[in-house]
Amino acid sequence: MEWGSELWDQYDIIERQTQWGIELVEKYVKFVRDRSEIEQSYAKQLRTLVKKYSPKRVLKEDQELKFSQYETFINILNELNDYAGQREVIAENLIQYIFAELMKYLYENKQERKMHLLEGRKAQQNLEVSYKQLDIAKKRFERDCKEAEKALQNAEKVDNDINTTKADVEKAKQQANLRNQLAEESKNEYASQLQKYNKDQNEFYFVEMPNVFNKLQDMDERRTRKLCEAYKMFADTEQKVMPIVGKCLDEMKKAAESVNENGDSRVLIEAHKSGFERPGELEFEDYSQLINRTSSENSIGSLKSESKVDQRTIGKNKTKRWPFSKKNKLAVSEDFSHLPPEQRRKKLQQKIDDLNRELQKQVDQREALDKMKDVYQRNPQMGDPNSLEPRIIETNQHIDRLHHELQKYESWLTDAEGKVVSRSESSVQCTPHCDQSPSLNNNNGSHDKGSPDTTYSDDSGQEPLQEPLPQPPPLSEFDDFEVDDIIHPIGNSTALYPFDGNSEGTIAMAEGEVLHLIEEDKGDGWTRVRRSDGEEGYVPTSYVKVSIGGM
Question: Scanning 99, 289, 336, 515, which has its CA 20 to 30 A from the CA of 414?
Answer without folding.
Answer: 515
